[in-house]
């Protein structure tokens, strides 16, 4: 499916259910399953030595499960290296199995283990979160909330925080979190989880490092059929994370030396009711600067001059003009419908008029408002919709919080409902198609939290859709480039001064 851009920038992320299955196989392959936890501790020790070679004082906060077990074995290694280590124990249930074995070993080695006390002053320059990993039941109760708060306070007071496997409080399957540890580094065990790269989890994890503990070899030795039996999710065989940092090597719409403008397609942006001309102008500018061959802005007459002054390369048509449609539309047109469309009669009429053209659509903003009013809508083949959480909630009839808690299910449901590719926008965005393929792309870029960022994305997506023709690929490219360019822009111009359309200066 990913034909043009190569799949090497995508890597699978897993659900807890899938990790548990890998775990079983990993244990079966070992003579002593406890060796896996010991390896985990060695990896933690290694990454501590790499990141904090001069630190002498460590506090390891542990829970009663295997996440705490990893922490206790790490404490033992730190003690053996003659470093100062204190374990704060917040387990509320009796330890069993490997976690108990780890506790006994740490105790036998003279590791200082004391009950967690929220009033205690942190004595470590590095705090390790070994409270909960993939076995967490959420939401956290008050006691665990105070543990999380204690770790975050230690960080604010200057300590560095390393999370074992997953920051405590983050839902491993969705990245959803209420109270959570904000880690500087997370050392993921076995394979990366969805919660590391999606939602609040993508921020809470800090810098993500994975240690496979032998599972890479195990996964690559598995047959295709066997791998798909891992049941990553009921609706999808594999969920991939798209590393936008790799994208610098791939332009959004690469150009060929022997090409002409017709190769890169035509984008027509419809929108810009009274007061909202900027949204449509930004979208058309974004389509042009992302590499579309030709771009037409189809809008109210009052916005035409503004667009021509700003972007003379974009044709601008007054929709009140009777020949506007025939002049602005070609047979290979990709339509961007929604930026500044408005919720008045003008927008409604335009929505229906454009839908009737049956051209591949990028449907965004108020285009999605009008779509939600239809009881039975089918979109032209090759279309993409780009809802944010609120728009997705309206389209599905879910609450916003439900979308937030289940972003992958929500995007998959929308992809089925409208038989199109969906971009559920967020800190990281979820891209899904009706065949059950799911990608996560992007990372937190607060510079994008400004009105107009979505309009720019929809224009970029118009250009990539005209170029690639395959909507999934087009969506991946546009979302990733939007996010990547935002990172570059924030670094060079600062998060306050930079405006949504400035992103377009960082596409090359
Ligand atoms: N996968 C692998 O191959 C490898 C995994 N490894 C490591 O194991 C970790 C998974 O370990 P895990 O399964 O023991 O789960 P974990 O996250 O420690 O939590 C379970 C414990 O916490 C408790 N508990 C849960 N929620 C709670 C709450 N809200 N409030 C209070 N208590 C709560 C729960 O209590 P219970 O349910 O028994 O009442 C139980 O005691 C994984 O993240 C990684 O670090 C590595 O060793 C290497 C190989
Ligand atoms: N903090 C953030 N981190 C990463 N991306 C963000 C952030 N805030 C917003 N975005 C992105 O910016 C865009 C905002 O879209 P939208 O909410 O439709 O904005 P608007 O309607 O104002 O144009 C989306 O692509 C979203 O993923
Ligand atoms: K943890």
Automatic annotation (TrEMBL):
Keyword set includes Lyase: yes
Positions with a binding annotation for K(+): 67, 129, 168
Key words of the record: ATP-binding, Isomerase, Lyase, Metal-binding, Multifunctional enzyme, NAD, NADP, Nucleotide-binding, Potassium
CC cofactor: Mg(2+); K(+)
Domain YjeF N-terminal: 19-221
Binding site for AMP: 425-429, 454
Known catalytic reactions: (6S)-NADHX + ADP = AMP + phosphate + NADH + H(+); (6R)-NADPHX = (6S)-NADPHX; (6S)-NADPHX + ADP = AMP + phosphate + NADPH + H(+); (6R)-NADHX = (6S)-NADHX
Residues reported to bind (6S)-NADPHX: 66-70, 133-139, 165, 279, 340, 388, 455
Pfam families: Carb_kinase (PF01256), YjeF_N (PF03853)
Free-text remark on how the cofactor is bound: Binds 1 potassium ion per subunit.
Domain called YjeF C-terminal: residue spans: 244-508
Enzyme Commission code: 4.2.1.136, 5.1.99.6
Family that this chain belongs to: Belongs to the NnrD/CARKD family. In the N-terminal section; belongs to the NnrE/AIBP family.
Role this protein plays: Bifunctional enzyme that catalyzes the epimerization of the S- and R-forms of NAD(P)HX and the dehydration of the S-form of NAD(P)HX at the expense of ADP, which is converted to AMP. This allows the repair of both epimers of NAD(P)HX, a damaged form of NAD(P)H that is a result of enzymatic or heat-dependent hydration.
Subunit structure: Homotetramer.
Protein name: Bifunctional NAD(P)H-hydrate repair enzyme
Organism: Marinomonas arenicola
């Amino acid at each position: 499916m990913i034909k043009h851009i190569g799949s090497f920038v995508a890597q699978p992320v897993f659900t807890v259910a899938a990790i548990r299955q890998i775990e079983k196989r990993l244990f079966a392959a070992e003579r002593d399953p406890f060796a896996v936890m010991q390896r985990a501790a060695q990896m933690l020790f290694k990454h501590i030595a790499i990141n904090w070679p001069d630190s002498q004082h460590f506090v390891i906060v542990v829970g009663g499960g295997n996440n705490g077990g990893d922490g206790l074995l790490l404490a033992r290694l730190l003690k053996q290296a003659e470093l100062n280590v204190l374990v704060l124990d917040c387990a509320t249930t009796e330890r069993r199995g490997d976690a108990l074995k780890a506790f006994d070993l740490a105790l036998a080695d003279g590791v200082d283990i004391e009950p967690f006390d929220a009033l205690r002053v942190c004595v470590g320059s590095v705090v390790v979160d070994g409270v909960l990993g993939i076995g967490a039941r959420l939401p956290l109760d008050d006691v665990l909330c105070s543990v999380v708060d204690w770790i975050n306070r230690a960080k604010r007071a200057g300590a560095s925080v390393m999370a074992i496997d997953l920051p405590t409080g983050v839902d491993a399957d969705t990245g959803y979190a209420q109270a959570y540890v904000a880690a500087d580094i997370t050392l993921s065990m076995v394979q990366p989880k969805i919660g590391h790269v999606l939602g609040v989890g993508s921020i809470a994890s800090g810098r993500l490092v994975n240690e496979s503990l032998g599972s890479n070899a195990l996964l690559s030795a598995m047959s295709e059929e066997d791998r798909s039996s891992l049941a990553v999710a009921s609706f999808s065989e594999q969920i991939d994370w798209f590393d936008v940092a790799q994208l610098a090597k791939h332009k959004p719409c690469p150009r060929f030396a022997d090409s002409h403008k017709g190769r890169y397609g035509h984008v027509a942006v419809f929108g810009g009711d009274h007061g909202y001309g900027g949204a449509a102008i930004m979208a058309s500018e974004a389509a042009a600067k992302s590499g579309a061959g030709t771009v037409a802005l189809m809008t109210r007459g009052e916005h035409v001059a503004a667009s021509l002054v700003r972007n003379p390369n974009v044709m601008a048509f007054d929709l009140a003009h009777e020949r506007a449609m025939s002049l602005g539309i070609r047979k290979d047109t990709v339509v961007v419908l929604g930026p500044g469309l408005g919720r008045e009669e003008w927008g409604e009429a335009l929505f229906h008029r454009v839908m009737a053209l049956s051209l591949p659509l990028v449907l965004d903003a108020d285009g999605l408002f009008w779509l939600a009013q239809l009881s039975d809508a089918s979109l032209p083949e090759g279309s993409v919709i780009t809802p944010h959480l609120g728009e997705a909630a309206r389209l599905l009839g879910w609450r916003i919080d439900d979308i937030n808690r289940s972003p992958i299910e929500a995007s998959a449901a929308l992809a089925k409902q409208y038989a199109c590719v969906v971009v559920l926008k967020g800190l990281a965005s979820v891209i899904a198609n009706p065949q059950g393929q799911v990608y996560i792309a992007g990372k937190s870029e607060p510079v994008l939290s400004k009105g107009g960022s979505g309009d720019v994305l929809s224009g970029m997506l118009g250009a990539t859709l005209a170029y690639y023709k395959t909507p999934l690929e087009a969506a991946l490219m546009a979302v990733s480039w939007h996010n990547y360019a935002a990172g570059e822009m924030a670094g060079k111009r600062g998060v306050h001064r930079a405006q949504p359309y400035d992103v377009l200066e960082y596409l090359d």
